[in-house]
Amino acid sequence: MSTLEIDRVRKTYGNLEVLKEVSISIGTGDFLVLLGPSGCGKSTLLNMIAGLENISGGEVRIAGKVVNELSPKDRDIAMVFQSYALYPTMTVRQNIEFGMKIRGVSPANRDKAVRAAADLLQITHLLDRKPSQLSGGQRQRVAMGRAIVRQPKLFLFDEPLSNLDAKLRVDMRTEIKRLHARLGTTIVYVTHDQIEAMTLATRVAVMKGGVVQQLDDPQTVYDRPANVYVAKFVGSPSMNIIPCRVEVEGTTATAIIDVANRPAARIPGIGLSSQAASTYANRKVLIGIRPELFSVGNGQAQGAISVDVDVVEPTGPDTLAVFHLGGVEVTARLPPKQVNAGTAATLAVDTSKIVLFDSDSEELIN
Amino acid sequence: MANALSQPKPMAEVLPRQNRIRLGRLFIYAPLAVMAVLYLMPLWVMVVTSLKPLDEIYGGSFIGPPQTITLDAWRSAWSQACIGTECTGLRPYFVNSLLMVVPAVVLSTGIGAINGYILTKWRFPGANFVFGLLLFGCFLPYQAILIPMARTLGLLGLAGGIPGLVFVHVAYGICFTTLFFRNYFVSLPDELTKAAMVDGAGFFRIFWSVILPTSIPIIVVSCIWQFTQIWNDFLFGVSFTSGGNSPITVALNNIVNVTTGRKQYNVDMAAAMIAAIPTLLVYIVAGRYFVRGLTAGAVKG
């Protein structure tokens, strides 16, 4: 049993409200990623769960127990920090032992726990070194070791990979995922990197301005983003958001997008709920198309659109083609060498995964 | 191009440049040497004078090396010279100074360390204001607090003795030591204290086990600074103690100023050396930490 419930939690500094009634609830073994740009309140929220910041309003419950007034050591949590925060004058062993020493764990049990954690993280040969003698990845492991020996109900990770170089970051990401699979402990993980969120999470909370924009599993967040902000934040290159008008027939819509110097592009076959169909008929909306929904089509197919390709960016496995639709820049992810810059191309669109947003509220239209 | 570079240069071209460099060096080293001699001159005079018999000094040679070396002046300064009416030498006053300086340095450094720790890692509303007030204390001239301090010591029952002097130096030193430690601790990441809190450590445990072990350089800086300030202080010593309770600086003044008959230059010089040796020793033993500690806060790795 190690659930976490964040119930209408608020944080204010004087008149400044940095968290506005945040509610998140996850179950035992969940991997929650708090995703957002810097200043969105995600680290503040994590610190409040840890007990390092006061909670201005609402409740945080760990395993059903309200922890608002408990100090960090009594919350049964362990935390890994962005800077690792290893104690610089202690050896790796002393770093890992420190918490157990304070809790009065016997030397024999301490030693056993250190061995087990060091084995798991493959840092046994580093136990007698000082943090300054370790590489970034090794420090990261030690920091995780320090958290693991605690055997907490909840692991808290505060941007643990952002100080590592790109290659190591990917390795450690896999490592953390493996660790989660082995230990099965509930994890709360803060990051601004949407790839980390997608790869690690069982639940993602996308945050902006102290408000949770969407709380869902990663695939849902990717496929059905709750609003334009989430759509643009998750995925790289980000989702194309194009102003358009919809014509509705029954519960199927056709998006009509203005194209400079060409007839308007028509994308038919977009599914809508009957309520949305009546509300948005003949209105302006925003259409969201992921770059990979485009494919190279032929001129005859229904829903094929003709565009003038501006720029081509080969990435290796794919080529990104940039062109203009509806007055905005649009990126398509295409197989390599299919289109050339400065020429016209005909593209087909997979309409089953297209999403529509209200043009005023920017919320998802079901 | 590569050929032109690898060709050896004709000697005529190389030599003048080297000579020019040597000449430049001469212009640097010569003034440096002159300044060094100028600065070391008083020390030289003190040392040789303290080793000469009085007759030799009055015989005319002041700067030259001693003809006959004698430690009589040192012996006299240490245990026989008359200070006021007592002829005890500097020894009891040296002990006074030690009794004053050790607790004062330990207390002011310790309190400064805790202050700096609180001001950086346990910030409270108005912490910056408090720090500002403490900084202000660094700029208070000694003279300004003489009379209020005399009154305070009187009320506390500490007037006239060494404990009173310890109190004055601790109170005065806290401003500086707090400044040292605060500036040093501000460069330690806050996540360090947070990690220790999650590990279950409390206020003092974090201070002892995590913060203090990283602070050796700044502790050394604080101790050297406080030691020299307190050991060399004359004004507080002469104002707040009297007679047998005086620190060595006051006693030195009395030896030099209160003489009958011929002025005993050799004893005066030996006494001055005795009074200066502890600060010299501190710098020699811990000097390299001093520079390291002063720059440690500035460049954060």
Q: Outline of chain B, from the CA principal axes?
A: flat
Mean pLDDT across all amino acids of chain A: 91
Strand content of chain A: 25-35%
Number of E strands of chain A: 22
Tell me the radius of gyration of chain B. 26 Å
The quaternary structure here is: heterodimer
**For the report, how would you describe the main beta sheet of chain B?**
none
In order across it, which strands form the biggest sheet of chain A? 6-7-8-3-9-10
| Overall domain count of chain A | 2
Q: Could you characterize what this model shows?
A:
The complex is a heterodimer of chains A (366) and B (301). With 366 residues, chain A is an alpha+beta fold. Chain A has two domains: 230 residues, Rossmann fold; 126 residues, OB fold (Dihydrolipoamide Acetyltransferase, E2P). In chain A, the strands form five sheets. Chain A has a six-stranded mixed β-sheet with strand order 6-7-8-3-9-10, with helices on both faces. In chain A, strands 13-12-11-14-21-22 form a six-stranded antiparallel β-sheet. In chain A, strand 9 and strand 10 form a beta hairpin. In chain A, helix 2 crosses helix 3. Chain A starts with a strand and ends with a strand. Chain B is mainly alpha-helical and 301 residues long. Chain B has a domain of 206 residues: MetI-like (MetI-like fold, Orthogonal Bundle), CATH 1.10.3720.10. Chain B contains 14 helices and no strands. Chain B is flat. At the A-B interface, strand 6 and helix 2 of A face helix 9 and helix 10 of B.
